[in-house]
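Reminder to self: tokens first, then the designed residues, so the page reads top to bottom the way the pipeline ran.
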């Protein structure tokens, strides 16, 4: 079972990954966006880590709900609402249980990703974070590692796409040839999940 400690470690691992990759995320965003994706997420996930340390939530859903609220309140642009929606809707689907199974997490993430799609009006193929999240959640049926791999492949797959949502969509054909920064950061989120699962004693299936 996955408890609150597992979810806190997932958020902490994500914060570390975002901090490490912030420069790359901002570089990706500078080509087709506002050049602030990395710095915004770094600030947001640093705030998430601080909030979790202070509050010490005791259920998986509480961890994600707090993380989502914190991102909404600290991250500018579209990233805060999108990531906040992902985590808060996933938290709602998980409910108040002190421990959840890997399959419960997968099903909850499906709801979270669907909520992100509704909020941004995005579908697979629109060159957004959805292109990383949808295949990742589908691959969770196999394993956490498979989900991370699918997210990375999905992010890389945005390069030949033409953006149809967000600021990048204003570029039209000029958005082709660039990796979507939101998809890249979503891949970091899923990689952190796989890393956390791999470090869990006994492993998680």
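Designed residues (205 positions):
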């Amino acid at each position: 079972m996955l408890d609150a400690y597992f979810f806190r470690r997932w958020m902490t691992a994500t914060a570390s990954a975002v901090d490490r990759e912030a420069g790359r995320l901002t570089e990706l965003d500078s080509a087709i966006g506002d050049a602030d994706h990395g710095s915004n997420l770094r600030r947001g996930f640093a705030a998430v880590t601080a909030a979790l340390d202070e509050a010490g939530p005791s259920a998986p859903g509480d961890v994600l709900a707090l993380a989502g609220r914190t991102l909404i309140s600290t991250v500018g642009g579209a990233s805060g609402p999108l990531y906040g929606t992902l985590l808060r809707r996933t938290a709602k689907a998980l409910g108040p249980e002190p421990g959840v199974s890997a399959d419960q997490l997968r099903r909850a993430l499906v709801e979270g990703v669907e909520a992100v799609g509704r909020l941004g009006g995005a579908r697979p193929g629109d060159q957004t974070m959805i292109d990383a999240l949808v295949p990742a959640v589908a691959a969770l049926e196999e394993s956490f590692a498979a989900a991370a791999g699918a997210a990375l492949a999905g992010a890389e797959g945005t390069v030949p796409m033409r953006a149809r949502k967000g600021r990048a969509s204003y570029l039209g054909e000029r958005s082709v040839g660039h990796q979507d920064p939101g998809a890249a950061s979503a891949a970091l989120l899923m990689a952190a999940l796989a890393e956390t699962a791999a470090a869990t004693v006994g492993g998680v299936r």
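The helical segments are 4-32, 37-55, 60-74, 79-94, 102-120, 130-139, 144-156, 181-199.
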